[in-house]
Design a protein that fits this description.
By secondary structure, the protein is mostly beta strands. Helix content is about 10%, strand content about 45%.
Length: about 200
């Protein structure tokens, strides 16, 4: 009986004092940690794509890619297309009207991140800028900041600014999640891990 009490007390101690022992598991995720997003083969949208309203002046997050970020499009011209990683719609509008996102692309055996903006339903090459080459595996710090008529994109130490036509003081809209394309569907399962920062 005494041995059983010692075991119970030991388990209770672990639950109370070991970090992470009481974290709530949600599918592939643990609260406060990375969320694993999967874009299934033949799809464009990721598996976790809820409607989440936002009112933010900055969205900060860490992303990790694995080898599934390496892909080849059927049409070679589509290798230039920028896939969407994370961001938000703005101006209380649809994301094809007003939005700011960080995008990603595998091309010439390199993974690059990009700024990607819609203003008044227009997304031009001038509103998408290369934020630099990133590596598969390591954590990559990213941020999209709203400053009046400007979006400030940061990846690692690189900063890019783009115009913002939205009139709200903060970005007002909904969260935008990983998406493949462009015109093509995912050629295989693609996994991306994202952790939001305060």
């Amino acid at each position: 009986m005494q041995k059983k009490n010692v075991i119970i007390c030991g388990l209770y101690f672990l639950l109370l004092f070991v970090p992470g022992a009481c974290n709530k598991n949600v599918g592939d995720t643990v609260e406060g940690e990375y969320v694993k997003y999967t874009i299934a083969e033949g799809e464009q949208y990721c598996d976790k794509n809820p409607y989440t309203p936002v009112s933010v002046d900055e969205l900060k997050f860490i992303v990790k890619f694995d080898s599934t970020a390496v892909y080849k499009t059927k049409d070679t011209l589509n290798q230039h297309s920028i896939n969407k990683l994370y961001g938000f719609s703005d101006n209380n509008g649809h994301h094809h009207e007003f939005s700011a996102r960080i995008g990603w692309r595998w091309k010439n055996d390199e993974l690059h991140l990009f700024s990607y903006v819609y203003n008044n339903s227009i997304s031009t090459p001038d509103w998408s800028k290369d934020l630099g080459k990133v590596e598969i595996g390591p954590e990559i710090n990213c941020s999209i900041k709203v400053k009046a008529d400007t979006y400030v994109f940061t990846v690692g130490g690189k900063i890019v600014t783009l115009p913002r036509a939205s009139k709200t003081a903060k970005a007002e809209g909904y969260k935008l999640y990983p998406y493949f394309g462009g015109n093509e569907i995912a050629p295989h399962n693609i996994m991306i891990w994202i952790k939001e920062l305060q």
